[in-house]
Amino acid sequence: MTDPNQPNRPADPYPPIDPDHPDHLGEPTPPPHPYYQELEFRTHEEVPVRFAVRYGEDHRPPGRPGVVARRAVLGAGWSVLQYRLTASAHGDPHAYGLLEREVSAAIALERRYGQQKFGAVFARIVGFDLTAAEPFVLYRPPVGRPLSEWAGRLGADDQERITGQLAMAVRLLAELDLVHRAVAPDTVRWDGARVRLCEPYAALRAGEAREPFGTAPWASPEQRAGAGAVDPRDDLWSVAALAYYLLSGRPDRGEGPPADLADYRRLAALGQSGLYSPRAAERPHPAELMRLLNVPDPLATGVGTADPLSRWRAEYDLQLARKRALRDGRVPGAGEGEHAADAADRDTPAPRPPRTFLGRIFGGGDEPPRAAPGPSPSLPPDGVPDPPSRSRMCPHCLLPVTYDERLLVTIDAKGNRIPLDLSGERRPGHVADALRKAYHLCPHTADGDEEHELPVPYLTTGEPLSVALVGSSSVGKTHLLAAMLGEVELGGLEPYGLKCRPLNPEAHRTYLRERVQSLKEGRQLGRTGQQTFARFADGLLVSAGGATPRPVVFFDLAGEDLAQDGEVGRFLMGVDAFVFVVDPLRALRLPSLDPVREQSGLRHRDLGDEAFTTVLNRIPRQRGGLVAAPAALAVNKSDLVRFEPSVDRWLGRALPGRHDPAALRDESRDAYAFLAHHAGAAWLKPFDDCADCTLHFVAATGGQARGDRFPHGARPRRVLAPLLSLFAMCGLLPGAESGEGIAR
Q1: Dihedral angle over CA of 209, 210, 212, 217, nearest 10
Q2: Measuring CA to CA, how many Å separate 281 from each of 184, 205, 234, 284, 483?
Q3: Which of 36, 80, 81, 40 shows the shortest CA–CA distance to 54?
Q4: Collapsing DSSP states into helix, strand and coil, what is residue 78?
Q5: 286, 180 in Cβ contact below 8 A?
């Protein structure tokens, strides 16, 4: 039986070792229970394969909560190691996240270095299945013996080779923004010629917050404490500790340079380089350490560095320059692209003025700036709101509504509108509480139209912001909005200086119960039904730094309603911001998605999303023909392509805890290049047509549903990124200039 990782390729120069070789999981004997089963999994290239399999006994590997390990024999005798998440650990989302993160790191290493001789320093992944009832990953068995068995038995040449190869391994990891974090005598093996690091079960992305892991002296003080951000030089501390251990035959205390470091002349240069400093910032970088050790850098020759997306990243910069020229009233010329990359990094132009009512309808790009409105009505000391000083546009019918106490109502459990008369109420607190939960009828309901109303805070607080999610049916708009508002409810916006309250408490509770809570319990949400009148799904009052709260309302219409140019979509002309939701199953040509397409009944579409085209043709344009409203293009269900390098770079890390325009620009460039390379140009139409548009990789559920449930629970990823971007462009995010976007 051939290695499923190497279809139609030359024989592997490092074939699997004999099944009787001792390893860290069990005794050097064949699996004791030779019963046969079948095992299906995907290779690191996501090619599905199936093998007959015999399993050995389960073992509990150290440092891996919820995971059991066992040896297995595939086919006629191919020995592998399996690490799987037990059913009892499924209630712990952290355990699943650790396994998923490990698989992601192992695949990244295999795809980048697996065909190179120096790739043997890493554990070699065979395959994985993260959708199985008990998710698992398979590796080739390890070679050599742990360094803990070699202490005091190695000559000077071997010690230098081990230190040099470990430095090279850290350098290779750092090239992929990975930090191993588990480099220790029991996890590093030596076979007399090369080292091999253990599986990357503790790996993190460089720049992420450190998580406490490891013990002294092998883990750095910062890593053990979980202080600061992950740095490749964390692993160099471990290399330094191992170098001292191999030479002295004993471990140090692990708090700084060993007390007797000066007694070992062979470590003098390492000590002088700062390698033993307790602070990562004071240690040399991996490439510098390799030069110090006279170890050749395999990446210096450009091995495996070809990037198929580089062309499209340059195209992204050209498109920014084109749109900038259109906004400025210039005709894009041949010289526009010459300095496109520099222009993309220039300071953001002055923010555009607030949009007037006519500006919302006709684009608002050309009218002269109006005077900034005064403070919006808010609760005075007596708790009773003053009447609004100006009208607000009804987001449903696009007509101005002026606050009128005679139009106040409450809505009972049956949906009946009951007039609310507060004229006899003299207790300010009671009035304020009643208005917080009350609605205001829209006076423009025409004959035959559906009666509608607005939450009172929509008319009595700051400038409203309406956000519409756009995409065809089944792209995941409903799940994405529920995941967004679930993260908001958990305080996901607070690190950015934003406070959120419900626009209407009862409506918000209903949305949380029917949508957000159902998703968090792992249930698939029902499809959004077609409507005869566009109503927003939920609303928030968002404030920053004690400023007057601004109402933010979210529209989630059925894809059929958005794709039809009917009356139900007329509200789109007044929407302030858009989230265009891309479905990888429809957009991407990747063969790895074909099995999922077959299961879901979806087809690849070169012509883009029908809803995108209909909406973009309907909403206002400004000078230059660009859409005035800010937009975000969200590649939803990115977990389906999570192992693609440009996706993994973003989906594999948490959102930063602060607004970072540079990271936002980088993610947009990567997402644009990914879509341009793997999808038709029509899928980028929102970016092409919108003056301000960022692009994001998001995952509303983190996995595919089976039946009506997500078997491993819903695990949202980076779902707040599009919302934060829109808030930045609309002047709602502290620390971001109003109008600050990527495509300007």
Answers
A1: -170
A2: 21, 17, 9, 8, 37
A3: 36
A4: strand
A5: no
Residue 333: what pLDDT?
57
User: For the segment 575-591, what is each residue's pLDDT rounded down to a tens digit?
Assistant: 999 999 999 999 999 99
Residues of the chain with pLDDT > 90: what percent? Answer: 61
Rounded CA gap, 741 and 631, in Å? 9
| Rounded mean pLDDT, 337-348 | 45
- Cβ atoms of residues 698 and 722 within 8 Å: yes
Distance CA 546, CA 551 (A): 15
Burial of 335 (0-12, 13-18, 19+ CB in 10 A): exposed
CA 508, chain centre distance (Å) = 26
Kind plus residue range of the DSSP H or E element containing 469:
strand 465-470
Q: What count of other Cβ atoms lies within 10 Å of the Cβ of residue 534?
A: 23
d(CA 475, CA 686): 16
Rounded-to-5 percentages of helix, strand, coil across the chain:
35, 15, 45
- State the average pLDDT over residues 37-57: 94
Give the tokens for residue 623: 């000078």
Q: d(Cα 246, Cα 184) in Å, to the nearest integer?
A: 11
Residue 486 tokens read as 């679930």
Strand partners, 52: 38
Find out whether 184 and 220 touch, Cβ atoms under 8 Å. no
Question: Could you report the per-residue pLDDT of 125-141, keeping only the tens digit for each?
Answer: 999 999 998 999 999 99
